[in-house]
Design goal:
The chain has 539 residues and is mostly helical. The chain has a three-stranded antiparallel β-sheet, with no helix packed on it. A two-stranded parallel sheet has the order 4-7.
């Protein structure tokens, strides 16, 4: 058996070792970003809903799989490919088994939810137990395959290709079942009167596509497992396939955790995901009525029950509950005013000296994510230059990175050329519907960026390059989490300070506000048009 960089660098050419180590360091950043995202979803979901049972228990399993993937990447990087082969094989295949189990559970739950009788939805515990039994019976197969492949590799190193096929093949079969089942579920959801929102359906489609891509990649790697490392006498093709697989796994972990954390998969939300029902009753009768409930799902069942209608009351609406007795203020936002707050200095001149240091409130979340995307790109370039060309000085890139964070922390987008580009060009060009969030948490996140980027710059200038790159890697992870998944870790710590009482009450209320876009009424719009006509005629 020759070089197999998936589980060991032994027998690999000496000039490949450095490249492979840098490659695994890069995968550490991506896998850590996915882990942070999964943990964030778990914490937020638990703080809002508590322990919700099924299917929210998956939010406690998903971080374990993501943690195992991080352990695999860090282990291969820090050990320079000399990690124990049993541990390497198990940590590589165990996350795949967790992912296959979780996705199959979700597809099975949706299938049962839209096929059982309406009368059985009153007490869904039986349905949950049935889904759990089926999923455990199927999901245990990839787990056993993962353990068996690790044991085989521990005793027979030359069987690494077959252990890859054994561990990944079991996952491939389960993911194939998930994909087929999810496709049928999506077809049913489109055909029936389902109350699943479009955003949830879009996420389910994305998860299905990612599963298909992983299956195709697994087939390709299984066919050319030995040949890919000898192709062109270069490790590049192997790195590409390995990077795509780790990328798909990390992205699927984060998207799946975000799906389960949605309100639709809470204890109350699951009751609303069933198909709508149609209730018909005879108006001529005065006493008890016979109500016919028709399930609009694929396998609808007719059930009849007696209901008194003397009171004439309809279905009561669910009461609005405030978490922990605290109701978040909801503020209507005028989009024109909010955009005016984010304008550059020459479009909105300051009225006083203190006005120079006013941070916008609210902030468009999409613009914040675009800024995080710029920070991700710039930090990645610095790290790539440091790994590939350590003789090139990149302090000027550091200066630009630090200046951006300082300018946005002090004055928002007023003095930052990158912010001008985002506000005036990129955001209007993408035509994204604005999503407004409070300003103080975002300002604290910019402060965190100032601290980490400045520390990395100082370490870089005093020739502590390794420590500088570690600090920059932390910033890169946080920027990836913000730009790709929309989770602001700095905002999370800001809210912790609010909860612990370090932040004043007025600022806490300001930081927890929710915003909705103010809708212009037809009368106001017609009045504004008439006013503009009068002004034009006078001119």
């Amino acid at each position: 058996m020759g070089c197999d960089a998936r589980v060991s660098f032994d027998d690999c050419p000496a000039d490949w070792i450095y490249s492979l180590q840098i490659f695994y360091y890069a995968t550490c950043i991506w896998s850590t970003a996915s882990l942070v995202t999964c943990i964030a979803y778990f914490i937020v979901d638990f703080s809002r809903k508590g322990w919700g049972g099924q299917p929210q228990f998956l939010l406690s399993i998903i971080p374990l799989g993501s943690l195992a993937m991080c352990g695999y990447c860090f282990g291969m990087a820090f050990s320079r490919g000399k990690m124990d082969r049993f541990a390497a094989e198990f940590l590589f295949t165990f996350p795949l088994a967790v992912l296959a189990y979780s996705q199959f559970y979700l597809s099975s739950l949706l299938t049962f939810l839209h096929t059982i009788k309406v009368s059985e939805l009153v007490d869904p515990k039986k349905m949950y137990r049935t889904v759990m039994r089926i999923t455990v019976a199927v999901g245990i197969f990839p787990l056993f395959a993962s353990i068996a492949s690790a044991v085989m590799l521990h005793y027979r190193w030359e069987w690494s290709r077959w252990t890859f096929i054994l561990g990944g093949g079991a996952v491939c079969l389960v993911l194939l079942a998930f994909t087929i089942e999810m496709v049928f579920n999506l077809i049913k959801l489109n055909a029936n009167l389902s109350r699943i929102p479009k955003r949830v359906k879009s996420t389910l489609r994305t998860l299905s596509v990612l599963s298909i891509l992983w299956i195709v990649l697994f087939i390709i790697r299984s066919i050319c497992y030995d040949k890919v490392l000898s192709y062109g006498n270069s490790v590049g093709p192997w790195m590409l396939l390995q990077a795509i697989q780790i990328f798909l796994v990390g992205l699927t972990f984060a998207l799946f955790a975000g799906t389960i954390a949605k309100e639709e998969f809470s204890a109350k939300g699951m009751k609303k995901l069933r198909a709508k029902v149609v209730v018909t009753m005879d108006r001529a009768a005065n006493q008890a009525h016979e109500v016919e409930v028709v399930d609009k799902s694929a396998i609808g069942a007719l059930s009849k029950s007696k209901k008194s209608s003397d009171s004439g009351e309809g279905l009561p609406e669910e009461p609005i509950e405030c978490a922990s007795g605290f109701c978040k203020p909801i503020i209507d936002v005028d989009v024109a005013v909010a955009r005016e707050l984010a304008q550059p200095i020459w479009k909105r001149p300051p009225k006083s000296f203190t006005d120079l240091f006013v941070f916008p409130h609210p902030v468009n979340e999409w613009e914040a994510r675009i800024h995080a995307g710029f920070a991700t790109t710039l930090a990645s370039i610095i790290l790539i230059l440091g790994a590939a060309r350590p003789d090139i000085e990149a302090w000027w890139l550091y200066i630009y990175l630090v200046f951006g964070f300082v300018a946005r922390f002090l004055s928002g987008p007023r003095f930052d050329p990158q912010a001008w580009l985002v506000v005036l060009v990129i955001s209007p060009m993408l035509k994204l519907k604005p999503v407004y969030v409070p300003g103080p948490p975002k300002r604290f996140a910019q402060f965190c960026g100032v601290v980490v980027s400045t520390a990395s710059l100082i370490l870089y200038t005093i020739h502590q390059r390794e420590a500088a790159f570690w600090a920059l890697s932390v910033l890169l992870i946080l920027a990836i989490v913000q730009s790709v998944y929309g989770i602001c870790v700095g905002c999370f710590f800001w809210h912790l300070l609010c909860l612990t009482g370090f932040i004043g009450e007025s600022l806490t209320i300001k930081s927890t506000s929710e915003f909705r876009i103010k809708k212009k009424s037809a009368t106001s719009s017609s009045h504004s048009k008439a006013t503009s006509r009068e002004e034009d005629s006078r001119a």
